[in-house]
Structures are given as structure tokens and as C-alpha cells.
Amino acid sequence: MCSGEGFSSNKALLFDGTNYTFWSIKMQTYLSALGYDIWKAIKNGYTTPSTPIIDVADKKLYRNNSKGKNAIMCRLVDSDLVRLMSYTSTK
Q1: Are residues 79 and 54 in contact, defined by beta-carbon separation less than 8 angstroms?
Q2: How many CB atoms lie within 10 A of CB 28?
Q3: Helical (H) or strand (E) element with 58
Q4: Which residue has the higher pLDDT, 23 or 87?
Q5: Is the pLDDT of residue 43 over 80?
Q6: Which residue in 21, 12, 17, 70 sits closest to 41, CA to CA?
Q7: Which of 29, 46, 55, 84 could be a cystine partner for 65, CB 3.0 to 4.6 Å?
């Protein structure tokens, strides 16, 4: 049994190109735990508006997408991150 040393319940595993299925399940759980709206932004996708965001609801959608994108990108090794850097939506 694991002693718990070095274990963080609020940090997802780093994806190194192996065991994608397990990483994916853990990331879904991690992102859901960040909040329903963040998970919803990932599931539904997000389109960056062509005009400046002024509406409060649009700002919230933008913020949730950014939080989800940050959570995913921080859990990728550099070689995988390079492939995803240009994406604007978490979907």
C-alpha cells in the first residue's frame, strides 16, 4: 500500500506518452474537480471571439476555457506540448 509520501490529491499525473487511457481517466476526474464550468468548457469546446470580450458571461467562458487549457498543458511533457501550443480551445 502507498504511504502517501509525495502524493498530491490536487495534481494530475504528467503524461509522458504512455498509459494514455489511465491518464485520460485521471485528467477527466481532475478537471471535473476543478469545477463543473471548467469541465463543461472542455466538453463543449470554446471559440475565441473576434471582437473584444465585454460581456460578463463571455468572460467567464473565456476564463473557464483558459483554466482547463492550463490544467491540461501543465500535465504534458514538452514534446507533446509543442504539438498542442497553437490550440485555443481545450476541446
Answers
A1: no
A2: 14
A3: helix 56-73
A4: 23
A5: yes
A6: 70
A7: 46
d(CA 7, CA 42): 26
Query: Contact, 2 vs 63, CB < 8 A?
Result: no
The mean of the pLDDT values for the chain is 80
Owner of C-alpha cell 490529491: 9
Tell me how far apart the alpha carbons of residues 40 and 35 are, in angstroms, rounded to a whole number.
9
Domain positions in the chain are 20-84
Residue type, 57: A
CB 89 within 8 A of CB 42: no
**Termini Cα distance of the chain:** 36
- Rounded to 10 deg, the angle between the 20-34 and 36-44 helix axes is 130
Cβ(81)–Cβ(73) under 8 Å? yes
For residue 15, list its beta bridge partners: 76
